[in-house]
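Hi all, posting the design record for the shared folder.

TITLE: backbone redesign
STEP: 1 of 1
STRUCTURE INPUT:
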């Protein structure tokens, strides 16, 4: 048996359960946008404007004549989403219809004069943060090692209290530079020629030679970045 004291509470709870109307102002971002993305944006958002109707901005909604905040019942867009006529209904036949709750949300949105998030548009591309160029400050030179890379490495080694590696022999250098730049080991003939070369600049010349091999260099690094970006790799050229 329901006490007369509990009856008013029960009535309030039942009204809250059965009423599709929102209790407070419509939340455009969390209530309206999901409905439009689910049912409408594919045909009327971004660069699409089927039926000459784009829903990208609030201004376009109002200019379209599809909504009338002063006469919600006369709003054509609500007529479309509630129509049972297969030739008229939106979304078109074969696509999921809006639920009663979704229709009620759109009606409330229109009745509240289409509240919109400032600056929001369904037509915007993905957000790209602005570039912020900066001029790095190089650490001081150590032991006359003036190259920027050497200066950065020397700072790292000093910070982590690591000894500076000694110079490598020509065979080790050739192997490393080949793997780094073109991803392939030098041939026995290339190794023999390099070891026999008396030129003091042969290491710098070898680096320039490998960098000038555009195809081998591109193949090596293109493969790396395709793996990183998960592209469908089909080779250069």
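Okay, here is what came back for every position:
SEQUENCE:
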């Amino acid at each position: 048996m329901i006490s007369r004291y509990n009856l008013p509470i029960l009535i309030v709870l039942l009204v809250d359960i059965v009423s599709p109307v929102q209790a407070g102002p419509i939340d455009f971002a969390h209530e309206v946008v999901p409905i439009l993305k689910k049912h409408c944006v594919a045909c009327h958002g971004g660069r699409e404007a089927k039926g000459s109707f784009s829903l990208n901005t609030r201004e376009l909604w109002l200019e379209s004549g599809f909504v009338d905040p002063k006469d919600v019942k006369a709003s054509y867009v609500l007529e479309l989403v509630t129509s049972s006529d297969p030739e008229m209904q939106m979304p078109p036949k074969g696509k999921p219809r809006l639920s009663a709750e979704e229709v009620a949300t759109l009606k409330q949105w229109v009745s509240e004069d289409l509240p919109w998030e400032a600056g929001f548009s369904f037509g915007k591309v993905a957000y790209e943060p602005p570039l912020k160029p900066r001029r790095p400050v190089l650490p001081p030179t150590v032991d006359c090692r003036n190259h920027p890379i050497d200066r950065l490495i020397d700072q790292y080694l000093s910070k982590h209290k690591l000894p500076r590696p000694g110079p490598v022999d020509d065979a080790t250098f050739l192997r490393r530079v080949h793997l780094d730049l073109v991803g392939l080991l030098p041939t026995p003939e290339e190794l023999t020629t390099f070891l026999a070369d008396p030129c003091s600049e042969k290491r710098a010349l070898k680096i320039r030679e490998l960098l000038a091999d555009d195809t081998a260099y591109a193949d090596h690094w293109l493969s790396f970045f395709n793996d990183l970006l998960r592209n469908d790799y089909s080779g250069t050229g």
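COMMENT: The first helix runs from residue 7 to 18.
Let me know if anyone wants the other runs.
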